[in-house]
Design goal:
The chain has about 200 residues and is α/β, with parallel strands linked by helices. The protein has helices spanning about 15-25, 65-75, 75-85, 115, 130-140, 150-170, 180-200, and strands at about 1-10, 30-35, 100-105, 120-125, 175. Strands 2-3-1-4-5 form a five-stranded parallel β-sheet, with helices on both faces. Helix 1 crosses helix 7 (about 180-200) and helix 2 packs across helix 3 (about 75-85). The longest helix is centred in the C-terminal third of the chain and has 21 residues, at about 180-200. The radius of gyration is 18 Å and the shape is globular. The protein starts with a strand and ends with a helix. The mean pLDDT is about 95.
């Protein structure tokens, strides 16, 4: 049994979840761990001087729990799939050649060094400020974004976190989130399948 860990990060509303779900549907024996599932309770998320909740930082997330789940998958991907209600598929000639793929999706996955070190393939979705703001305003959040939250917190934190990420990550593929979803999926799928083939052929 062999494993492949794929990271899909990017700006808020950039298309991370859509790409990750499409990848999961295309790649046998894959599953998704989404960072958004690990937010701390709203009551313990810090507030800045302007009253903005500080969601766009690692301290707002249960990263220890997320890492525990990633480690559970690494120990036994097949058991993890079953635990998630997924049925493992026999896709290779032998069990030794079987490749299991974990897709880790989230806006700060490349900013957490212990997680960042596990990625075999890294992709980052980016879209322009204007498009991001428009998409963000059309979505319903709980709790909802207060007035001025995007310009006063979300976008500045994205730029800060991106600079930090770029100082930590060297092997990352930047994806234009304005391109057709099918085009992005095809490009990433091709790359991932090449890596799966390489792993299967590796003695």
């Amino acid at each position: 049994m062999k494993t492949l860990v794929v990271g899909v990060g990017g700006v808020t509303n950039g298309g991370k979840s859509t790409l990750s779900m499409s990848l999961h549907q295309q790649i046998p024996n894959s599953c998704i761990i989404a960072q958004d599932s690990y937010f701390k309770d709203d009551s313990v998320v810090p507030v800045d001087g302007r009253g903005f909740k500080q969601y766009d930082m690692l301290d707002a997330l249960h990263m220890d729990t997320m890492m525990s789940d990633v480690d559970s998958w690494r120990r036994d991907p097949e058991a993890f799939l079953k635990q998630c209600g997924l049925i493992p598929e026999q896709t290779a000639a032998s069990e030794e050649e079987e490749v299991f793929v974990l897709i880790v999706e989230g806006f700060l996955i490349f900013n957490h060094r212990p997680l960042n070190e596990l990625f075999d393939r890294s992709y980052f979705m980016e879209i322009p400020y204007e498009v991001c703001k428009k998409r963000r305003s059309s979505r319903v959040y709980r709790p909802p974004d207060p007035p001025g939250y995007f310009d006063g917190h979300v976008w500045p934190m994205y730029l800060k976190n991106r600079r930090e990420m770029e100082s930590m990550v060297s092997r990352i593929v930047f994806l234009d989130g304005l391109k057709p979803k099918e085009e992005l999926l095809a490009a990433v799928c091709k790359d991932v399948y090449q890596e799966i083939k390489r792993l299967m052929e590796k003695s």
